[in-house]
Amino acid sequence: MNMRNSKHRHWVSCRQGKTRRGLSLVEVLVALFVLGLTILPLFGLYSQSSAVVRIGRHDIEAMNFGSSFISQARKLLPRNVTCTNGDMKLLAIQNGQLRLGPVGVANTIEVPLLDQAIFQTTYSIASFVMSPANDGMLREAKQIVLKISWKESLGKDKSACFTALVIDDSISGH
Amino acid sequence: MRATTVNVLEEEFACEVALSASSVFWCELEDVFRERKGSSLLFPGDLSLSPLNFFSENPNGLLVRPSDLDAEEKLRKSFAAIVKPFTETTITGAEVGFRVSRQTPSCLTGSLEMKVQVRVRRTNYEFVFPRDFKLINILPAVPSKFTLFVKNISNPEMFNGAQKTFQQDSGSQRILVLHNTNQPFSSTDTGLWRKSGWIFLGGSKVVINLDGTHPCRKESEFFLFWPTIYFGAGNQNTEIPYFCSPLFENTQLRVRTMPIGCCTEWANPAAGLSNIIGNTIVETVINSSVLRLFGEKSHMTPTRVFGNVFARYILYSTLIFDSDGDGVADFISDPTGTSQKAVFPIPRAMPNEYTNPSVLPRMINTGGFDLFSDGAGTQGVPDSLADVMPAYSAGAPSDYVNHMTKLSTDFLDSCEVPYYNSLYDQMFEWSNSGANRSFPAKQVLGRSGEEYPNLGTKFTLPADQEGNGALWKGNLQKYDPISDAKNLMDGVAFRFANQEDFFADSSVRRLPQGVLLRKPLVVHIDGDLDLSPEVFVAAPVAVVVSGNVRLGRVRRATPAGKLIILSLAGNIEAVGGKIEASLLAPKGTIRLSAPLDLVGTLFVDSLEPSQLSKFGGAIIFDPDSDPTNLDVYNRFFTMVLGPQSALVGKKQ
Asked: Which of B6, B17, B27 is the mutation pick for testing A, counting most A CBs within 10 A?
């Protein structure tokens, strides 16, 4: 009843007032086109930023790993770490721990987990030549270099380097 | 976003390269600070011009670049080596700036800011690595000028415990010998004291008995009177030298005086010596001191002594018959025709007899020969002693007192003779060639009223060895290295709760044979510190310890090494081995469990003679710690660096 009345009123009112003109199909299509022009780039941007975030996530993971590795390695004594024969693959990391020299001395570092399916990691430890002090105090130093490489989702190869110099300036026969 | 993450990775890498470069630069700079050379900017030839001498200069704003270091080339090679494994990476610059934040009379504090510039691909980065510093002259000026500084002497006779016969090399008691300079003795170098380590023995009276064993004996101190005569081990029967008076008028008699130290023979009734010096004082002259102030006969080191310090020895006088005037006693035939050596001891009169002579003493030699009765009629021998000493026979004993046997301590305190410093003059008595020896010797150390004695109440530590300026002025008797305006406490850069924490510090290295102190340090350790059995010192290091300190061997591992130990309230124990250090225990003493072998300074509140006589040893003044040597003092402005702080980075 109410509905009927309502329809009725609506109808009446239509009949009774000035008739209003609707949108033409063309107008609607044009509006949709304009809307599409506006929205489509936004979709593209969203998609692209998602890709960048994916890529950035790899960067961040690499940086976390590298920074952690290097900051801990920097605290080691040069005599406690063993020089490598060039780049060495960083393979098994047991329980997040990595040993950079012989057992029995302080040379273990803890590193975050890194997906080895994505990241290839190598490190090298080399003697760094430092002359003794004028009064004969010998100095020993080693340079640690960590290289992480991975392939971005877009297929581009990417790598990051990290380095630290560890110095002990009092090794001597004094 | 992508660019951002790429930049973060690159910046992290650039930072690590910069950090490596800074490590190398710090390393070189630390060596310059440690060795106090290697940079004409920081340590010019004339160290008084060093900007680190903050008493006269101000290092605020000073910039140090690699080119300012002698190690510039090494540094550049190291920088190149750091970036060698990487492409498109260069270290483009580095410098260190001084920022001073606070200054006190004894210490300067602030930070060093090391800037390192790195270029990665096309981006320049600059990283700043700040590091706190403290700059202090770690040489405690007053104690460092002294071979031995003892604040309190409990008993004036406390050191006189070494008992020996005349021909004994050493007794059961050991002696502690002070070697106040490393220069060989020269009788013409009267200013030797200026470059020597001095001695302070508190404000109370202390008497040092000289060693009167035969000059050829090892511990004999005859050299104090005859420094230019050599007595070897094989000539123990050689006659002891003496002084002679002129011949008495109209006689062939003269007085021969022989200064002799203390030994047990003075109490030997058979030798008749106890009667000569007086039985009542014999006990004071049978022992010699376990502390020897002027070195030993193989290394004579006279110096300046502060305090109320007396030297006790005997001026043994004899009347001799010397007909040929050669200063040597002749022989006279006694009534039986036996030749008698004409040497007649002149007994010491008691002070109460000085103004009231009782009887003329007889002049009898060791063979019982009486000069004036048995030798009557001998040409040149008068009838009696009264003819030789008329004043004495007339009741005014001045001539007898002048010539009789006496102790150095018999002289009035107003006279310089009893004081130890007069022995300095005695050793240089022949400094003017051709001059006759006199007793007392002419003063070369100072003037009466200044050095005889010098109580140290108006003490000035000069700034140089010519006596100019003043590093410190005041009363030595009240000197306290802890409350001194320029004291070590103000410069303490690190404080440790115990010695374990100290040993765990990166500046300390435990070696198989001991401990290596490798960085300039001023540290305070609560509790006790045990550095035995061996410590190697490669840098200027001052260690302030609340409690006791135990030392074995202390060795300077490099020329820059210098260890200063200050025990605030405890004792210092030396368990054996050579100690190259300055030891200060202003409220304690030194305890020995082996002979002391110290090169440096010993500053203590008191000494325990029983400790010294049990082990003895030597203290050798270290001229490389003499604060009155300008070069030395300026070398001890010591930079103590704090840990490397978090870096401040920026991209250019």
From this structure: B27
Query: How many whole angstroms separate alpha carbon B557 and alpha carbon B552?
Result: 15
pLDDT at B242: 83
Q: How far is CA B129 from the centre of its chain?
A: 43
Q: Mark yes or no for CB contact A163/B30 under 8 Å.
A: no
Backbone angles phi, psi at B423, to 5 degrees: -70, -30
Three-state SS for B125? strand
- Global pTM value: 0.86
Of B1, B2, B70, which to mutate for an interface test with A (greatest number of A Cβ within 10 Å)? B2
Proportion of chain A above pLDDT 90, given as a percent:
17
DSSP helix/strand/coil, A105: coil
Query: In whole angstroms, how large is the CA radius of gyration of chain A?
Result: 34
Q: Tell me if B87 sits within 8 A of B124, measured CB to CB.
A: no
The pLDDT value recorded for residue A2 is 42
- Residue B223: which pLDDT band, with cuts at 50, 70 and 90? very high
pLDDT tens-digit readout, B37-67: 899 999 998 888 899 988 888 899 999 999 9
In what helix (H) or strand (E) does residue B599 lie, and over which residues does it extend?
A: strand B596-604
Q: Does residue A76 sit at the B interface (CB-CB below 8 Å)?
A: no
Q: Which residues, in sequence order, are CB contacts of B312 under 8 Å at separation 6+?
A: B160, B207, B208, B209, B210, B262, B284, B285, B407, B408, B409
DSSP state of B209: E
Q: Measured between alpha carbons, how far is B370 from B361 in angstroms, rounded to an integer? A: 11
CB-nearest partner of A174 from B19, B86, B536: B536
Amino acid identity, residue B509? R
Residue in the block written with tokens 């109320």: B308
Of B231, B228, B238, B248, nearest in space to B187 by CA: B228
Cα B438–chain centre separation: 29
- Mean of pLDDT values over B353-357: 60
Q: Which residues pair with B119 in a beta bridge?
A: B90, B124
Contact B602, B201 (CB under 8 A): no
Taking Cα atoms as reference points, which of B145, B65, B265, B295 lies closest to residue B626? B145
Please state, in angstroms and rounded to a whole number, the distance separating the CA atoms of residues B177 and B184. 16
Q: What is the pLDDT of residues A108-127, one digit of tens each?
A: 888 888 888 888 999 999 99
Q: Inter-chain contact A135–B559, Cβ cutoff 8 Å?
A: yes
Higher pLDDT, residue A47 or B320 = B320
3-state secondary structure B324-374: CCCCCCCEEECCCCCEEECEEECCCCCHHHCCCCCCCCCCECCCCCEHHHH
B31 Cβ under 8 Å from any chain A Cβ = yes
How many C-beta neighbours within 10 Å does residue B438 have? 10
Q: How confident is the model at residue A144 (pLDDT cuts 50, 70, 90)?
A: very high
CA distances from B512 to A46, B62, B222, B516 (A): 64, 41, 46, 10
The answer to whether residue B30 scores a pLDDT higher than 60 is yes
3 state DSSP class of B184: coil
Query: Tokens in use for B196?
Result: 């020597």
Distance, in Å, from the CA atom of B247 to the CA atom of B48, rounded to the nearest integer, reads 59
Min mean pLDDT across A102-116, B463-477, B494-508 is at A102-116
Q: Is the dihedral of CA A62, A64, A65, A67 positive or negative?
A: positive
pLDDT of res. A174:
42
Contact B625, B601 (CB under 8 A): yes
Give the per-residue pLDDT at B541.
96
Chain A environment of B504 (Cβ under 8 Å): none
Q: What is the ipTM of this complex?
A: 0.74
Q: How far apart are the C-alpha atoms of B182 and B462, rounded to whole Å?
A: 21
Length of chain A (residues): 174
| Record: contact A134-B37, CB cut-off 8 A | yes
pLDDT value for B651: 56
